[in-house]
Amino acid sequence: MFKQVVAVVLLFAAVAQGLEIIQCSNNRPTPQEVTVPGCTSLPCQVPNQSDFNFSVRFAPTFPTNTLTVDVRASLLGLFLPYEVPDHLRNGCNNINTSCPLTAGQSVTLTGTAPVEAPLTGVTVTMEFEITGDGGQVAVCFAATVTLL
Ligand SMILES: *[C@@H]1O[C@H](CO)[C@@H](O)[C@H](O)[C@H]1NC(C)=O
Ligand SMILES: *[C@@H]1O[C@H](CO)[C@@H](O)[C@H](O)[C@H]1NC(C)=O
Ligand SMILES: *[C@@H]1O[C@H](CO)[C@@H](O)[C@H](O)[C@H]1NC(C)=O
Q1: What was the pLDDT predicted at 35?
Q2: Which of 13, 58, 72, 131 shows the smallest number of beta carbons within 10 Å?
Q3: For the chain, what is the total number of helices (H) and then of strands (E)?
């Protein structure tokens, strides 16, 4: 009986935990959970010219009418040019509900970020920052991605 309970708890923990992500600098708010299909630990492997697919659950601490997604890619500490596609940039279009959001409202945003690199085998750090009204940071996380 006890063993069964332990097994159920462990299973639940493994499912609920999601991916262990990298925290952004400057104490920007962290997500409640990030999941990346097909990736259970960093770095995630993504074929060149494919998409990095992710889902992030977070709750902005302030009310907001807008959500803007910014992506920064870096390699060995150098920023790479990265143009956020329009379909990803407007976060309100990719959440499981609609904007405006109230303070503390938990939402899930699902996004696809194209990846492209001149070299394979390199591991790029991708930082995802979602800001609300007035540029206030709602959530931020980073993940390492190895290009195949
Ligand atoms: C991301 O999703 C797209 C569309 O569903 C799919 O074609 C692509 O292979 C996915 N990328 C990865 C790395 O799984
Ligand atoms: C959206 O996702 C959040 C967090 O996962 C969840 O709490 C909420 O119930 C979802 N809302 C809808 C309308 O599905
Ligand atoms: C990845 O795709 C881009 C765009 O087609 C191409 O320029 C680049 O050479 C590709 N990288 C590799 C390692 O094949």
Answers
A1: 96
A2: 13
A3: 2, 8
One-letter identity of residue 1: M
Q: What is the pLDDT of residues 33-86, one digit of tens each?
A: 999 999 999 999 998 888 999 999 999 999 999 999 999 999 888 888 889 999
| Angle in degrees, CA 138, 144, 94, rounded to 5 | 40
Domain spans of the chain?
Answer: 22-147
pTM of the entire predicted model: 0.85
Q: Which residue has the least CA distance to atom 13 on ligand 2?
A: 97
Residue nearest to atom 13 of ligand 1 (CA): 46
Closest listed residue to residue 138, CA positions, set 64, 72, 86, 37: 64
**What pLDDT, on the 0 to 100 scale, is given for residue 39?**
94
Distance (angstroms) between ligand 2 centre and the Cα of 21 equals 21
Within 8 A by CB and 6+ apart from 83, the residues are none
Structural fold of domain 22-147? Immunoglobulin-like (2.60.40)
